[in-house]
Amino acid sequence: MISRFRVELPDGGSAPAVSLTDTKEVSAALDALELYSPRPTVVVVGGAAGLDEAGMRHLAPVFEVGIAPVVQRSGAVGIDGGTHFGVMRLLGEARKSTRATYPLLGVVAVGSVKLRRAQPFSRVDTALEPNHTEFVFVPGEQWGAEAAWIARTATALAGTARSITVLVNGGEIAYGDVEQSVEAGRCVLVVSGSGGTADVFARALTGAPVDKRAVALIESGLVRSAPMDDPETIAELLTVAVGESTTT
């Protein structure tokens, strides 16, 4: 059953949110948030709490130059895990710094943030990223439980429009994120040089001996890479993947 409410954000604001318990509810949940299909969709996955401040600064141009402007120009929706860590924080802050207006949807496992329900407002014990504009709370008690839900949400929202997943850095959970995208038929752009699982996939694409999970997934033909130190190329590849908006 879908439940609508507003969730409190760390900056003192709030955002519309829904919670659901069944995958059959995803499309209705998006409609409840006034996010209607078909809509180009860019999913961002990867490093979270393991990224330190120095690493975050180093990765910032990937988001400020390579990702956020493309999401804006293409009329797309950004989707990630919604919390105030790692790539999710970077995407939220890039949206703010570039003065973008695109919807940024966080898909969050309720147990990982300890959602406290108090209609019409709710709170979480783990901070949500305050530049996200909508949230979907899904079943799950730990980090990574949202992976399948992110993929389903992106597929439902994109519909007949284009979509792509971007992997930046990442740990063990990132293998599941990429697997979910590949199973959905969604292309994955790996940011090489960003560390962690992204670099494992980048090496696998060169034929280097790496984790068998990465090798199996690149055999899908849906995984490619672009260098972290060339955000303009990342932007070009994302533009090809999701297209340019035809509206003004």
Account of the protein in words:
- By secondary structure, this protein is an alpha/beta fold.
- The chain has one domain (3-242): Rossmann fold (3-Layer(aba) Sandwich).
- The chain has 9 helices and 11 strands.
- The protein has helices at 26-32, 53-73, 86-97, 110-113, 147-158, 172-183, 196-205, 212-218, 231-242, and strands spanning 3-8, 14-19, 41-46, 77-80, 104-109, 116-118, 121-123, 134-138, 163-168, 187-192, 223-227.
- An 11-stranded mixed β-sheet has the order 6-7-1-2-8-5-4-3-9-10-11, sandwiched between helices.
- A hairpin with a 2-residue loop joins strand 6 (116-118) and strand 7.
- Helix 2 packs parallel to helix 9 (231-242).
- The model has no long low-confidence stretch (mean pLDDT 92).
- CATH architecture call: 3-Layer(aba) Sandwich
Please state the overall shape, judged from the principal axes of the Cα atoms.
globular
Tally of individual domains = 1
- CATH topology annotation: Rossmann fold
What is the N-to-C succession of helices and strands? EEHEHEHEHEEEHEHEHHEH
Helical coverage, percent range = 25-40%
So what's the CATH class? Alpha Beta
Give the rounded overall mean pLDDT: 92
The number of helical runs is 9
N-C termini distance: 37 Å
What is Rg?
Answer: 17 Å
Specify the biggest β-sheet.
11 strands, mixed
Strand neighbour order, sheet with most strands: 6-7-1-2-8-5-4-3-9-10-11
Q: Structural class, please?
A: alpha/beta
Oligomeric category: single chain
Low-pLDDT ranges:
none
| Strand count | 11
Classify the beta-strand content into a percent band. Answer: 15-25%
